[in-house]
Amino acid sequence: MVAAKILVIDDNKSVLSALEIMLQFEYQSVTTFSNPNQISSYSDLKNCDIVLLDMNFSAGVNTGNEGLYWLREIKKKAPQTAVIMMTAYGAVDLAVQALKQGATDFILKPWNNDKLLATVKSAYELRKSKQEVQQLKQKQTNLRQVINENKTTIIGKSKALREILHLVEKVAKTDVNVLVTGENGTGKELIAREVHKLSNRSNEIFINVDMGSISESLFESELFGHTKGSFTDAKEDRAGKFEAANGGTLFLDEIGNLSLQTQAKLLSAIQNKVIVRVGANKPIPVDIRLVCATNCNLDQMVADGLFREDLLYRINTIRVEVPALREREDDVLILADFYLNKFATKYGKKDLKINQAAQEKLLNYAWPGNIRELLHTIERSVILSEGTVLKPTDFLLHSNAQIGLETGPNTLEEMELLMITKALDKNDGNYSAAAEQLGISRQTLYNKIKKKAAK
Fold first, then answer.
1. Tell me: the pLDDT tens digits for 151-172?
2. Is 416 exposed, middle or buried (0-12, 13-18, 19+ CB in 10 A)?
């Protein structure tokens, strides 16, 4: 027995009895009304899966207008409920009119039992399919919202940052391709997300692809998708990043890391707005907003023959150069306070403050790793803090050991400091992972950092 609710509405009580007897053996709940006016006060209408509705209720009236009226009323109150119209021979034109107004199907009187049951079953399956589609759409919407949720905000008030955000605001409403450039750690992905958030595609998905992490052999599969059996590990059909981003924004980070061969394949997809899955021949049109980012000098790479000039023209309609943190001096302490509060809350260390001398130290530092380096520096200081006031010695900076950006370390102590800093940066501040990379215990790493910070 199918767990469905059926409502039958007909002024002929013999019809009601016959349908109730037949349907009650197939469906869990069968309710009958002899007067359509009962629809107005029926509170469970939205929960009905199927309504079987007669076309005529007044004696001597065969226009079908009553049935059409109540069809519209049902659709107003329960738009997802499937309605099957019941009509006599010769009124097929009315049934067709009913279909145009939202009815799922119609049954001719007198009916064939098998055909009637088949019609009701089809209507129920259609109703369930529509429900599943609606649920999938809702899940897709919720998933987009989760994926697009930007948990990191753009913080600062410096003139350099305001100019960039003003440019982003102007560009976002268009659909032109954007190239975001800047040093490592400046927040290029945040700028790309801001472009998406302010665009007309903000309700669609934002897909982030790290081009530097994709091997050349998997490039086409990752970006364009593949069919089952197209290569050894292709156990099922899979959509690529271009398809996944269809309708939304595709962000290609570290685009300067692509080989010339993969650049050609990417250029073709961007130019034609069409991709073909690996192992397939069918072209798939894609509609994306393309944003790329790199810390490389693409103009120099073009001159050196390492980057295609035509690809640069395609991705570089608008270029947004994200300023280095040393060019945003007004934002250093703002960002430091933001991360201080964030990590103080995370690690349960309340009321932490940075004293004046430590603030001067942060302001006088060049921040070669930019905001990412500042973030890790503040997190390390919070973790290792033993009081409520952070002093200059609580901040481990490259300059503590006078390591030149170009000359490199000159002593074993400088080498050790540089290795520790690089390991922490590479592992996004994860002490356990950094310690494992360095071949020491987590506690040993803590002790070394505290020792160096005290100098």
1. 567 999 999 999 999 999 999 9
2. middle
